[in-house]
């Protein structure tokens, strides 16, 4: 009897969890949407109905999401996290959301994003990262997104945007890029070229207003004449990294100083002779010096030896003479000494 009651109780419990609605949220069974907006939440509520398609979490104070935060709602197609307090997103946070189509992260405090953060979202159509503090976007942000049509990063702190990132969105039609800190140096030329083609094919972009260098502050990137732009010289390290993972993955590799747009200056920079080390020549010179030194030394040594030998011989001869002749041979002796002195000198 007690066992039966327990079973009944747990079945009711399970049903409640499956069909229930989290406290503080409103659930609309017909549309499978769960609305938890403006409830002062600081975390994703537990026990969300697993068949949820749309989840409204906007206008709360969620500051942290654990990895796999949404695996309990694998059918989710729309996730709205607008106006929360997220400052970073851990890898794997969107795991299991294979059907997600719309992700709204606008009005948070995101500073940077992990590379491949959005990889688990192959069906994404709209990604809104606007009004955050992003200063850089990693190049592989997700798989090539066949269905991504809207990409918004306006009102951030971006200075550069990697063309490789845009090329991973072959279907993108709407781009929101304005209100960033675009640095219109030679590195932004590839973005300019990409955008021109994008607009030509019918894409829509709001605007890319340069924040630097000073000469182009306030100018629209798309209106700067081509003649004033020249591609950045590619150092070999840059080439390597661009082959590895797209152009801009060379984040810290070559942060070139903002380029002067005077054509003369740029030409000068490009024609600057690179001081190349010449180890072969250096070795050659060193060898020459060593050989010369050795030869000179040997010659000098031989001369010194010859001189000493000559002197000794002369002295011995003179002494021998001196012993066997009379004192009259004195001048001969001095003659020998003179010879010795002069040869030594
Ligand atoms: C953001 O959410 C807070 C509540 O957390 C709300 O008071 C505020 O009006 C919201 N701001 C906007 C711009 O919607
Ligand atoms: C995200 O939310 C903002 C504010 O409500 C809205 O303007 C924007 O269109 C939304 N983005 C997407 C991709 O739905
Ligand atoms: C893109 O959308 C189409 C049609 O809605 C869908 O059939 C296809 O699976 C989607 N592609 C990806 C990669 O999700």
Description:
By secondary structure, this protein is an alpha/beta fold. Among the domains are: 13-180, Alpha-Beta Horseshoe (Leucine-rich repeat, LRR (right-handed beta-alpha superhelix)), CATH 3.80.10.10; 283-321. Helices cover 33% and strands 8% of the residues. The protein contains seven helices and nine strands, in the order αβββββββαβαβαααα. The chain has helices at residues 2-19, 163-167, 189-200, 236-245, 263-271, 279-324, 330-344, and strands at residues 26-28, 33-35, 54-56, 78-80, 102-104, 126-128, 150-152, 174-176, 204-205. A nine-stranded mixed beta sheet has the order 1-2-3-4-5-6-7-8-9, covered by helices on one side. Helix 6 runs antiparallel to helix 7 (330-344). The radius of gyration is 42 Å and the shape is elongated. The relative contact order is 0.06. It binds 2-acetamido-2-deoxy-beta-D-glucopyranose (3 copies).
Defining traits:
nine-stranded mixed sheet, 8% strand, binds 2-acetamido-2-deoxy-beta-D-glucopyranose, elongated, alpha/beta, Leucine-rich repeat, LRR (right-handed beta-alpha superhelix), 33% helix
Q: Quote the CATH topology of the domain at 13-180.
A: Leucine-rich repeat, LRR (right-handed beta-alpha superhelix)
Order of helices and strands: HEEEEEEEHEHEHHHH
Helix proportion: 25-40%
Termini separation comes to: 130 Å
Strand order of the largest sheet: 1-2-3-4-5-6-7-8-9
Name the bound molecules.
2-acetamido-2-deoxy-beta-D-glucopyranose
What does the radius of gyration come to?
42 Å
Molecular shape: elongated
Uncertain segments are 5-18, 238-280, 325-345
CATH class of the domain at 13-180: Alpha Beta
- What percentage of amino acids are in beta strands? 5-15%
State the total count of DSSP E strands.
Answer: 9
Q: Averaged pLDDT, please?
A: 76
Q: How would you classify the helix and strand content by structural class?
A: alpha/beta
> What is the fourth-level CATH superfamily of the domain at 13-180?
Ribonuclease Inhibitor
Q: Can you tell me the CATH architecture of the domain at 13-180? A: Alpha-Beta Horseshoe
Number of helices: 7
